[in-house]
């Protein structure tokens, strides 16, 4: 895995700026060279003043997330899913000149959005273009410890609205769905090459699609006659496999299948399973881990992870004294997931399925008491 680091001269040449200072020092454990472990690209720039430029993206559950994270001046925050930078902008204002925001995303469009934030942010900022599991491994190898780590899972509005990326069933576009355009696997390859049983397995497990077998069979039959190359060709194939009464019950008939293909293309659940423990390890005592999920597959994983860390003794109830010695590592900040208000959903319908969960990493004093 290779890494490209841009120092102040690279950025100054690219943007014509003269106010960039050398990149933030890397802290590593030990004296070994960790460069071979680094993700694709990293960009670092200290900020020089507050900025509040508007973007096209409306961050979901923004007030609720900021309240749970409770950012303070001088702290370090890791945004694992930068996207259009909506949450990051709000956080950067509160971290102040002595604070640091590390932004992670594998999408080159996110890197472009970050360049705008970097020119205006009130805190020091750094961008790592990579999947978040790999980026968190990099940061752990550097010995970084953060006061907060958060995820805004799923696809971003800018990905949905970039029609040629093929994320949406509403536009005719090539079948793609890659969050990182440099990766090889695309939705086109899955639809064209995966055998029927594997397709059905993906649609059922990643999309919770009750008609997975029928849809997989329809895809295989249609591609035997002619390639399925566009989103609307796939939508037509999906519709043909779903019984008429069920086609418009619970939303667009292709919604679950498109979700499943996107998750499969980008290994989203595998990434999340790897990233959650890495993010927890990066937290300082008293730090907060938060995640916004948009479907039950993500939310269940986040909930299980946080609840497990909040559990103490697991001995059978009939034992008079604890024999396992297990102590809780976390305090849940919300017993139930936080959902958007009716007002937020009215202004941003894409927020309707969002669920926010968070937990604080306990200190030694918390555990002792």
Q: What topology does this entry show?
A:
Layout: E1 4-6, H1 8-15, E2 41-45, H2 62-69, E3 76-79, H3 86-95, E4 100-105, H4 108-120, E5 124-129, H5 132-142, E6 146-152, H6 157-161, H7 187-193, H8 196-207, H9 212-225, H10 231-241, H11 255-266, H12 268-282, E7 283-293, H13 296-310, E8 330-332, H14 342-347, E9 355-361, H15 364-368
Helix pairs in contact: 5-12, 8-9, 8-11, 9-10, 12-13
How would you explain this protein's 3D organization?
With 369 residues, this protein is α/β, with parallel strands linked by helices. Helices cover 41% and strands 14% of the residues. The radius of gyration is 22 Å and the shape is globular. It folds into 2 domains: 4-158 and 268-368, Vaccinia Virus protein VP39 (Rossmann fold); 162-266, Orthogonal Bundle (DNA polymerase, domain 1). It has 15 helices and 9 strands.
According to CATH, what is the class of the largest domain? Answer: Alpha Beta
Distance between the termini: 45 Å
- Radius of gyration computed on alpha carbons: 22 Å
Bin the helical content.
40-55%
Major beta sheet, specifics?
Answer: 9 strands, mixed
Kindly state the mean pLDDT as a whole number? 83
**Numbering strands along the chain, what is their spatial order in the largest sheet?**
1-2-5-4-3-6-7-9-8
SSE order: EHEHEHEHEHEHHHHHHHEHEHEH
Number of domains: 2
* CATH fold assignment of the largest domain: Rossmann fold
CATH architecture title of the largest domain = 3-Layer(aba) Sandwich
Number of strands: 9
* β-sheet strand percentage: 5-15%
Q: What are the segments in which pLDDT stays under 50 over at least 5 consecutive residues?
A: 1-56
With helices defined by DSSP (H or I, 4 residues minimum), what is the helix count? 15
What's the overall geometry? globular
Which homologous superfamily in CATH is the superfamily of the largest domain?
Vaccinia Virus protein VP39
Given helix and strand content, the structural type is alpha/beta
């Amino acid at each position: 895995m290779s890494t490209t680091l841009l120092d102040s001269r690279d950025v100054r040449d690219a943007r014509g700026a003269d106010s960039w200072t050398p990149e933030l020092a890397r802290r590593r454990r030990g004296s070994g060279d960790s460069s071979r472990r680094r993700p694709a690209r990293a960009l670092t720039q200290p900020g020089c003043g507050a900025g509040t430029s508007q973007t096209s993206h409306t961050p979901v559950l923004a007030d609720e997330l900021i309240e749970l994270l409770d950012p303070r001046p001088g702290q370090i925050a890791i945004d694992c899913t930068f996207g259009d930078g909506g949450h990051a902008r709000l956080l950067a204002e509160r971290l102040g000149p002595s604070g640091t925001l590390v932004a992670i995303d594998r999408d080159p469009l996110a890197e472009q959005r970050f360049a705008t934030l970097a020119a205006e942010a009130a805190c020091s900022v750094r961008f790592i273009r990579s999947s978040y599991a790999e980026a968190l491994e990099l940061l752990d190898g550097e010995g970084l410890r953060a006061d907060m780590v958060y995820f805004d899972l799923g696809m971003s509005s800018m990905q949905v609205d970039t029609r040629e990326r093929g994320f949406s069933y509403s536009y005719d576009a090539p079948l793609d769905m890659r969050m990182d355009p440099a990766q090889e696997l695309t939705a086109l390859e899955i639809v064209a090459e995966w055998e029927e049983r594997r397709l059905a397995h993906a649609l059922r497990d990643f999309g919770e699609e009750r008609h997975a077998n029928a849809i997989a069979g329809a895809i295989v039959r249609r591609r035997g006659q002619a390639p399925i190359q566009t989103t609307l060709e796939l939508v037509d194939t999906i519709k043909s496999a779903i019984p008429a009464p069920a086609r418009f019950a619970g939303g667009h008939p292709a919604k679950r299948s498109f979700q499943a293909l996107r998750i499969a293309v980008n290994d989203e659940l595998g990434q999340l399973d790897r990233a959650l423990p890495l993010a927890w390890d990066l937290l300082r005592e008293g730090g907060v881990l938060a995640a916004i999920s948009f479907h039950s597959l993500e939310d269940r994983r986040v909930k299980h992870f946080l609840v497990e860390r909040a559990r103490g003794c697991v001995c059978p109830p009939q034992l008079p004294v604890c024999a396992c010695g297990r102590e809780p590592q976390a305090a849940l900040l919300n017993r139930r997931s936080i959902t958007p208000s009716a007002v937020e959903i009215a202004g941003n319908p894409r927020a309707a399925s969002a669920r926010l969960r968070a937990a604080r990493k306990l200190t030694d004093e918390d555990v002792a008491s």
